[in-house]
Amino acid sequence: MTTADTAQRVAAIGAGITPSSPSFLGIVRAELQKTGWRRAVWFSLLGIGLLMLLLNGITYFFVINGLTSPQGPGGPGQPPAPTIPAEAIPYVMMTLLLSNVREYSGLVIALLTVLLISVEYQLGTIRIVLGRGVGRIRLLAGKYVALLIAGLIALLVILGLNILELIVAAAAQGKSDALLGHIPSYLWSDAGAYLLTILYNLVVTMLLAAFFTVLSRSLAFGLVAALAYWFAEGIVSTILQGVAGATQNKSWSDVTHYFLGTNLTNLASTVLPKRNLPDLSAAFGGGPGGAPFDATHAIVVTLIYSAIFLGVSLYLTWKRDVLQ
Amino acid sequence: MTAPSAQTQPALTRPSEVVLRTQNLSKSYGSRLAVDNLNLDVRRGEIFGFLGPNGAGKTTTIRMALGLIAPTSGSVEVLGKDIGQHLSEVLPRVGALVETPALYTYMSGRNNLRTMASALGGIPDSHIDAILDVVGLRERQKDRVRTYSLGMKQRLGVAMALLHNPDLLILDEPANGLDPAGIVEIRDLMRALAAQGKTVFISSHVLTEVQQICTRVAIINNGRLVTESTVEALTQTQGGFAVKVREPAEALALVKAQPWGSSAQIDANGYLLTPSPDGEGRSLNLFLSQAGHAPDLIMEQSESLEDVFLRLTGAAPNGATATTTTPTAGGAQ
């Protein structure tokens, strides 16, 4: 290319483009592109999806079998099953299904959050993005919104896959009627309320994952911390329950009522109305009942955690030097 | 020929407008002072070279100019506004390539530009095509950046900086990794941008390149400004000439006998290095010719920017003289 060519082309590229402040919608769109155009994201989601389909498929198969078997959910040699009303089967399956959806959608949003926030620091692109006048807080807010959109889509896909899998698991055993033949009218409103708690869970999990990633600016640390946090809480909970049992002092176990994981796990139980159904939650997971606190407690505690995660993330994003 | 419009040639209308100014700018990390009381003025339409050895504080200064790190004291004004107060107004008019090109390596070159275009808004696909043409990446636009060579990444980094038609371009080592043809292209590009009234601020270690394209340079060392001047003023030595004569020893004796010629000497190539009676090449020519030593060649002595840089930063290698006197430019003959 000659000097004259270059001059001509440079003159051409300057025409018609006026530098302007980035729009928030544009930032969100760019963040969605950064997520969607990344193969690692799709491979991770595929892996999680396959794992989910395998584990949940097995679970649904055996739980439907247990619920409809005269031997009861415990299987052969176990105490006989309580008398299970026909409408309890779809209800239990609904709560079990949504409990699984909550866990997997939480895992997906945590993964997406860590990937989307850490990528700018890992690749150094944060200096390009901020250097174009995309404000720090606006960038983080744009990432939050993009993640919520992606999380919502993931939630719908996970929900659809689980419903399909449940129906297939029932049909494979010829028990579709037990699953779909006696659906109580209140199941839909309860499922709707449960779904709202899953959405809330999604937001809190995203804020937690964003907090660890903003803090560390590292993919590895952010991912490990966002996942290990729940395990750590679980281990500490178990220890505290043990101490409470050993010392006969309930205040030890009461401490766990202020743990994030405890509150999020029990949120659905506190929100759903008590139905006149046998409590099968211990046998099948999920289901209403059993929460040691009420919905207000769960919401206030999780809101406090969320405010801390959000506040610290915003402050660090706003104030820290970008040296990447 | 029609007169250039004010829109396309702002350099001609407001040549002295300062587009980047640092005032008493300092940044410290703990007890280490990375930038120390730095004062710079970069004017519209200039190609300004920002030089310094590794760790001198160049990148820290650039990061402060882009609002990536906060100054410990002092301020940065970009396009007439304080960067700390008007970040979102000013930075959309700045394009930057800081250190190594930071790119989404998992995306194609084109998608990198599309992502940035989405965030910035108002940039059509045809503009992306034009930018890819300018930086010579049209052929490889669909390949993932992970497969690019350093030079190609550098070109894409420049494309990202140019994407939104900025008024001020800040380029940190833009020639890094480029082959000779690429270096020439980037040089032409910068000249073309400056001709359009855009300001180009380059931090570089390739001093020969800087000397060829920059109008002014600043040299910093240990975070402090050592000098800020035009390239011409920095590289020109005061009234010195290199003269090729047939009998240099006799000519030297003659010159040394003059009141203005006591510093004359003969260099390793047999050139007579001497001042002129009045600082002009023609009077030296006349003097020598009248004395019977008609010069075959007279060249105005100048230092290369590299020599100046090494001298001013105290980084000259052992044994090298800080004031190299290699004749490089033609003078009176």
Unreliable residue stretches of chain B = 1-14, 319-333
Strand order of the largest sheet of chain B: 6-7-8-3-9-10
Structural class of chain A: mainly alpha
Order of helices and strands of chain B: HEEEHEEHEHHHEHEHEEHEHEEHEHE
Helix content of chain A: over 70%
Mean pLDDT of chain A: 87
Q: Largest chain interface and its two residue counts?
A: A-B, 47 and 56 residues
Helices and strands of chain B: which structural class?
alpha/beta
List the quaternary state of the chains. heterodimer
N-to-C SSE string of chain A, H for helix and E for strand = HHHHHHHHHHHHH
- Count, helices of chain A: 13
* Strand residues, percent of chain A: under 5%
Shape annotation of chain B: elongated
Describe this structure in words.
The complex is a heterodimer of chains A (324) and B (333). Chain A is mainly alpha-helical and 324 residues long. Chain A has 13 helices and no strands. In chain A, helix 8 (186-216) packs across helix 9 (219-247). The model of chain A is unreliable at 283-288 (pLDDT under 50). Chain B starts with 9 loop residues before the first helix and ends with a strand. In chain B, helix 5 (125-135) packs across helix 6 (150-162). The longest helix of chain B is centred in the middle third of the chain and has 16 residues, at 180-195. Classes of the chains: A mainly alpha (324), B alpha/beta (333).
Quick overview:
With 324 residues, chain A is mainly alpha-helical. Chain A has helices at 3-14, 24-36, 39-68, 88-123, 126-131, 136-172, 176-180, 186-216, 219-247, 250-254, 260-271, 281-284, 295-319. The model of chain A is unreliable at 283-288 (pLDDT under 50).
Which descriptors apply to this entry?
heterodimer; A: 324 residues; globular; B: 333 residues; alpha/beta; five-stranded antiparallel β-sheet; 12 helices
What's the SSE blueprint?
The complex is a heterodimer of chains A (324) and B (333).
Chain A (H helix, E strand, L loop, with lengths): L2 H12 L9 H13 L2 H30 L19 H36 L2 H6 L4 H37 L3 H5 L5 H31 L2 H29 L2 H5 L5 H12 L9 H4 L10 H25 L5
Helix pairs in contact in A: 2-6, 3-4, 3-6, 4-6, 4-8, 4-9, 6-8, 8-9, 8-11, 8-13, 11-13
Chain B lengths: L9 H4 L4 E12 L2 E12 L3 E5 L6 H8 L7 E6 L2 E2 L4 H4 L3 E4 L11 H12 L4 H11 L14 H13 L5 E5 L7 H16 L3 E5 L3 H7 L2 E6 L2 E7 H5 E9 L3 H9 L8 E2 L5 E4 L5 H10 L6 E6 L2 H9 L13 E4 L3
Helix pairs in contact in B: 5-6
